[in-house]
Amino acid sequence: MKTERLRLIDDYLRQTFQGKIRKISIDIGATCPNRDGSKGVGGCIFCSEQGSGSRNTWSQPDMVAQIEKGFNSFQKHYPDEKFIAYFQAFTPTYVPPARLQQAIELIACDERLSGFVISSRSDTLNSKVIDILQKKRGISLLWLELGLQSISQVSLDWMNRKESVEDFEKAMDLCRSHAIPVVAHIILGAPGEGSDHLRRTAHYLNQSGVWGLKIHQLHAIKGTRLFRLYQSGQWHPYLLHQFLDDIILFLENLRPEIVIHRLVADERKKTGIFHNGEELVKEVVYRELIREIEARDSFQGKAII
Ligand code: SF4
C-alpha cells in the first residue's frame, strides 16, 4: 500500500535500506506468563491456540532448520530483498536468558540476515534481556515490539492481559536508556473506548518515546474466548465505517514521525471487519482506508500540527 499521507514502514525501510525487508519467523519455544500460571491462565481473550502452539523445547539445529525453511520459501520469490529474523511466537523474552542469547548469536552469525525483531510482553523485559540485545547493537536492524494494547486498565482487564500501563512504561524506560527502538502494539475496538479514548491513546503514544506502532483491530479468531463472546452476542466486531472513523481519528492525532508497521491485522486473510454482512479481507480494508483518508483530506498528525 502506498500513500504519502502516512509514515509507513515499507517506505521507511526502502529509504533507509534501499529495499524491502522480509521477516523470517522463528519460534524459540517460549511459553507465556499469561498462560503458564505465573501471571495468569488461559491467555488474552484474543490469543489463538496457534499462539499457544509454541513448543516448549528448542535446540540449535531446530532453529537453523527454521531459518533455512524461511529462506527456501522466500528467496526464490524475492532474491534481491533483505531478510531479518522475527521472534514472535508467544513471549520470546520469557525463555531462559541462555537460550535467548544462543538464538541471537545464531542470527548474528548468519550473513544472510540483516538483523532481528523481538515481539514480547513488557513485564518480561529486564536488564539481563536488555544486556543480551545490547551486545548485538552492531547489526543493522534491531527493534523490540511491546504489546501495550490499551491505555485503559479496564480494557486490559477485560482482555485478560494481566499487564498494566506501568509495565509498559518500565520496559520503555529500559529500552530508552539503551537506545533500543520500540514498536508498540495497540488494539482498537475494545468495548467503551470511544473517540476521547482514541485521542488520549494517540497523545499518550506521542510522548511515550515509541519509534513505531502496530495497530490491530480487535477481531475474534475461532477458538478464542473473544470468539465465544462474539457467538453469544456479548461482543460485536467492527463494521467497516466504524473502523474507518476510529482509525482515521487515531491517526490524525498521532505524531507524523511515528512509523506505522501495521494498520490492520488479519488471520488467514480475514480481518473480523464487516460490511453488508460480509467479513472483509485486509486488501479491501486497506483500499477503503486509503480512499477514505484521501476523501477526507486526512493525514497522520493532522489534528495536532
Ligand atoms: S501475552 Fe501474547 S502470547 Fe501471552 S496470552 Fe497474551 S497474546 Fe497470547
Number of domains in the coordinates? 1
SSE string, helix = H, strand = E? HEHHEHEHEHHEHEHHEEEH
Proportion of residues in β-strands = 15-25%
What does the radius of gyration come to? 19 Å
Oligomer: single chain
CATH architecture: Alpha-Beta Barrel
List low-confidence stretches. none
The CATH topology corresponds to: TIM Barrel
Can you describe what's shown?
The model has no long low-confidence stretch (mean pLDDT 92). This protein has a single domain (9-237, 254-265), classed as TIM Barrel (Alpha-Beta Barrel). 38% of the residues lie in helices and 18% in strands. The strands form 2 sheets. It has a 7-stranded parallel β-sheet, sandwiched between helices. The chain has helices at residues 9-17, 49-52, 60-75, 97-109, 127-134, 153-158, 165-177, 195-208, 225-231, 240-252, 282-295, and strands spanning 21-26, 82-87, 113-120, 141-149, 182-188, 212-217, 259-262, 270-275, 278-281. It is of the alpha/beta class and 305 residues long. Iron/sulfur cluster binds at residues 32, 34-35, 43-44, 47, 51, 90-91, 121.
